[in-house]
From TrEMBL, chain A:
PANTHER family: F-BOX DOMAIN-CONTAINING PROTEIN, OS03G0653100 PROTEIN-RELATED. Residues 3-41 form the F-box domain. Gene3D superfamilies: 1.20.1280.50. Pfam families: F-box. This is F-box domain-containing protein.
UniProtKB/TrEMBL annotation, chain B:
This is SKP1-like protein. Involved in ubiquitination and subsequent proteasomal degradation of target proteins. Together with CUL1, RBX1 and a F-box protein, it forms a SCF E3 ubiquitin ligase complex. The functional specificity of this complex depends on the type of F-box protein. In the SCF complex, it serves as an adapter that links the F-box protein to CUL1. The keyword Zinc does not apply. GO terms for biological process: jasmonic acid mediated signaling pathway; protein ubiquitination; ubiquitin-dependent protein catabolic process. Keywords: Ubl conjugation pathway. It comes from Digitaria exilis.
Length: 407, 186
């Protein structure tokens, strides 16, 4: 095998999942050169394997939940007990990115139990008095930043509904030169950075004056650019390396569809940045998913009714799709470490959503369906489905037309 | 050698089928002779198709100095088996239109074909397939090798495939460190 031509080695290694490719860099020098030279290791697909996921969607309450197969989660402390009493007081998770957690005063790695403190927040940039802020974490575990990998925290301004600000209602927002503070874990300081808009604005101050339903507005860090879901559902793409930004209209708006009841959600998965729209049609949940292409246009990937799912939800915990998962939050802890299963979660053994929907007369009383997020490197979306009748909180995932159940 | 990888190949294949002999003789590095159907050779190997079309086939045995007799025997065996199995439309199109069709899972007989090979034989075959431009065989053999590597640590991979570790201890530690901050716990 030492003697195989480079092309063949690349052909073989290119078929492996990201975690194996990363391991193969340590087999021999030429392999590392091949993997790095041909970019076989997709740094943007990290985490290298999905052992579990944190979830900030509002379910029964607005806590953060952690879901993982019991065996995989043993090295991870989602309750952040290692921070001690003082740390626990601030243990509200405000953002997550590629396995790191951002709290109000620090960035934490729940797998390695390390953290770095943030320094005190800076004063607002000139002219920005009266704004609110959200903190966004940007972290690329491999590559785009010099090793050892560093993260950034962005202090992103929120247009307040009532406060007086120095901008009139018809001013473009963000302004053509957008100045924000960014904390770098390398320098451990907040720095003021200005970004110049490329292309057209997508809204004014007045358009942005919406309630801040924080859990639904997410940010994604992908290939050196930060994508933030703005208050008018547009997405701002901030290129951290070249001081430019551009605005991207929401796919729901772009296709001129009027969605009054539903949520637009931003996320990252296999091919990049995705937007999901969860709505109700004829009283049944309906999901659309778009992928952002390289020219910043939304491409519709999925347009599917979740009716079958709602009607056929397998409430039997012993069926073949059920697996034990941990559901940890600071309030609820179910340490159901029952099964030793060393393999990565098998997301492919779902069931298939049928094209035809039977006219069942069953009526489920639902609290509704909630979009949880995307699988980091497979085109799978996670939903929660809450049914009042049985009082069970269950979690589903969907892959194209496939559906399976995580219990 | 220029090999026409486009639509011309089907035409060349037809020409070949009309030629006098319907087999070609291939000669391994250690001088053994193998006969293979001209049609299958031209369909499955871009290099052989090019040689046949270019008239550089030697009736007394076309020299393939880079390929040993065991690997060549496997190549010929694969061509014959392939000719006997009825290729699906997808297979034909993937061997003609290059790099467009996504990888199709090995068929049952292809799986068996590579499963019975020793490691050395498999590596010789993958090299031969690469040299002869046999896209499908390369696909099947590379797939097999990647299956064997999945889930193994670097140490296990070196052991299974008999690969010499050319890293120093310090370098290995460095590679581990590159990923360590986020994903590994000591």
């Amino acid at each position: 095998m030492d003697l195989l031509p480079d092309d063949v080695v690349a052909n073989i290694l290119g078929r492996l999942p990201p975690c194996s490719v990363a391991g193969c860099r340590g087999v021999r020098r030429e392999w590392r050169a091949t993997i790095d030279g041909r970019r076989l290791l997709r740094a943007d697909l990290l985490p290298l394997r999905l052992d579990g996921f944190f979830c900030r969607a509002t379910l029964l309450d607005s806590q953060t939940y952690f879901f993982a197969p019991p065996s995989a989660a043993q090295g991870i402390d989602p309750r952040l007990d290692f921070l001690g009493e003082e740390g626990r007081d601030y243990a509200n998770i405000v953002d997550l990115c590629n396995g790191l957690l951002l709290l109000w005063d620090r960035v934490v790695n729940p797998a390695t139990r390390q953290w770095i403190p943030l320094t005190p927040f800076p004063r607002p940039c000139a002219g920005m008095e009266g704004f609110f802020y959200r903190l966004i974490l940007a972290y690329d575990p491999l590559g785009l930043m010099p090793p050892p990998p560093h993260c950034s925290v962005v202090r992103f301004p929120i247009v307040p509904i009532y406060n007086d600000i120095d901008f009139t209602d018809d001013s473009e927002w963000p302004p053509s030169t957008f100045t924000i503070h960014i904390f770098s874990s390398a320098q451990r300081v907040w720095q003021e950075r200005s970004f110049v808009r490329q292309g057209a604005p997508t809204g004014t101050i007045a358009d942005m004056r919406h309630e801040n339903d924080g859990c639904h507005r997410r940010a994604v860090f992908f290939r050196g650019a930060l994508y933030v879901h703005c208050q008018n559902n547009s997405v701002i793409r901030i290129a951290l390396s070249d001081n430019k930004y551009r605005m991207i209209t929401s796919p729901a708006t772009a296709e001129n569809q009027v969605f009054h009841h539903g949520h637009v959600c931003l996320g990252k998965s296999d091919k990049g940045v995705y937007s999901a729209f969860l709505s109700k049609e004829d009283e049944w949940p309906w999901c659309r998913v778009w992928l952002l292409d390289e020219s910043c246009h939304w491409v519709l990937k999925s347009n599917i009714s979740l009716r079958w799912l709602a009607q056929n939800f397998p409430f039997d915990n012993t069926d073949k799709y059920s697996r034990p998962w941990i559901n940890n939050s600071t309030k609820h802890v179910h340490q159901a470490r029952v099964v030793q299963d060393e393999s990565e979660w098998d997301f492919d053994s779902g069931v298939t959503l049928p094209d035809e929907i039977s006219d069942s007369t069953d009526v489920l009383i639902t609290y509704g369906t909630v979009f949880l997020g995307f699988h980091p490197y497979k085109e799978i979306a996670f939903f929660s489905y809450i049914q009042l009748k049985s009082g069970i909180l269950s979690f589903e995932y969907i892959k194209g037309p496939r559906v399976g159940r995580l219990n | 050698m220029e090999v026409d990888k486009g639509k011309g190949e089907a035409e060349e294949t037809r020409k070949v089928a009309e030629a006098d002999r319907d087999t070609v003789t291939l000669k391994s590095s250690d001088g053994k002779l193998f006969e293979v159907s001209k049609e299958a050779a031209a369909r499955l190997s871009t290099v052989l198709a090019g040689m046949i079309a270019g008239g550089s086939i030697d009736d007394n045995g076309t020299d393939l100095k880079q390929i040993g007799s065991e690997a060549l025997e496997n190549v010929v065996d694969y061509c014959n088996k392939h000719a006997n199995s009825i290729p699906s439309a997808a297979l034909i199109s993937s061997s003609i239109s290059f790099n467009t069709a996504p990888f199709k899972e090995p068929e049952e007989w292809e799986r068996k074909f590579v499963d019975r090979l020793s490691h050395d034989a498999l590596f010789d075959l993958v090299e031969a397939a690469n040299f002869l431009g046999m896209e499908r065989l390369l696909d099947v053999t590379c797939h097999k090798i990647s299956e064997m590597m999945k889930g193994k640590s670097p140490d296990q991979i070196r052991e299974v495939f008999n690969i010499k570790n050319d890293y120093t201890k310090e370098e290995l530690e460095e590679i581990r460190q590159e990923l360590a901050w986020a994903f590994y716990d000591d």
